[in-house]
Specification:
By secondary structure, the protein is mainly α. A two-stranded antiparallel sheet has the order 1-2. Helix 6 crosses helix 8, helix 9 packs across helix 10 and helix 10 packs across helix 11.
Length: 306
């Protein structure tokens, strides 16, 4: 039981971590909490569903890849969803957030993000309907990795192994991008001191575009992963929004590495709380962990002391 709960928490945490990175990047560089970010997860998941339908209509049914429940069309659909979600984020910025950054205040941006989230959620439900959808109807048999007599045993599906592996690859790639590339270093400099970064010649507009693109791409990946593990529904992003912010705050708002660590902690807290309090109190348990850690370290795990 213990190993199974741990594995389930890691899978949940990997999805939360990817989404929380976008939240913390937006706050670090754009200086506001974007409550529409959860809808990017949902739109990314549904973009992938539409792309998958279009690809299968052209190619016909495709066999799954090895033990996975899906074939290469979903991988290609994930790439399409990442591009479309990035375009959605850039469009929303051009129509709304860019103008408010110039003439509004932080609280104006936050309220506007609430409104944008409501519009995006209802628009998606109008287009796709409220009925849950699935990427695949294939039934997977969970692999037993640890015998039952060892801490309750451990069973995991191939899809979950794929999700965890791709999450690790994505986080490592993001780390290399932020630490080794010119654009990544410019983003880190902008998050530290935007005014000084602009004085030194950094193109702030390019940094803002890169922030939206990276956050939206990671949100699309997280949305597809959530759809693979559970199901697609219009409330998907809204249900994940509070855990995303909990992970970002827990890790230290503005810290990418903190968002990853916070995501896994929130995922584990939710998983281990289920047999104790029930599934309906999972989110509340995660926030209790958040409060407990913030009482000890108010700036979060990786946050800098003021």
């Amino acid at each position: 039981m213990m190993l199974q709960l741990f594995a389930d928490g890691i899978i949940i945490g990997s999805i939360i971590a990817l989404g929380a990175i976008g939240v913390t990047l937006t706050y670090a560089i754009l200086r506001f909490a974007n409550f529409a970010h959860g809808e990017y997860l949902t739109w990314g998941a549904y973009f992938a569903l539409s792309a998958l339908g279009g690809i299968v209509a052209v190619t016909g049914p495709v066999d799954p890849i090895g033990p996975l429940s899906f074939g290469w069309p979903l991988v290609l659909a994930l790439g399409c969803a990442a591009v479309l979600t990035a375009l959605l984020a850039l469009t929303l910025d051009a129509l709304l957030f860019r103008r408010l950054r110039r003439h509004g205040t932080t609280i104006t941006l936050i309220i506007a993000s609430f409104g944008a989230a409501l519009v995006l959620r209802n628009l998606l439900q109008f287009i796709y309907g409220p009925v849950p959808e699935y990427y695949s109807r294939e039934i997977q048999v969970a692999l037993r990795l640890v015998p039952r007599n060892v801490l309750g045993g451990l069973r995991i599906t191939p899809d979950q192994i794929f999700i965890l592996g791709l999450t690790i690859v994505t986080v490592v790639a993001l780390h290399l991008f932020l630490s080794r590339t010119t654009l990544g270093r410019a983003m880190r400099a902008t998050s530290e001191n935007p005014a000084l970064a602009q004085v030194t010649g950094i193109d702030i507009d390019a940094i803002v575009r890169a922030t939206w693109i990276i956050g939206a791409v990671l949100a699309a990946v997280a949305g597809v992963f959530a759809g693979l593990t559970v199901q697609l529904r219009p409330q998907l992003g809204f249900e994940l929004l509070l855990p995303l912010f909990a992970a970002a705050i827990l890790g230290g708002i503005g810290s990418v590495y903190g968002a990853v660590a916070g995501g896994f902690i929130v995922g584990l807290a939710e998983s281990f709380s289920v047999p104790v309090f029930g599934a309906e109190y999972r989110a509340a348990t995660a926030f209790l962990v958040l409060i407990a850690i913030l009482l000890v370290r108010p700036t979060g795990l990786f946050g800098e002391k003021p």
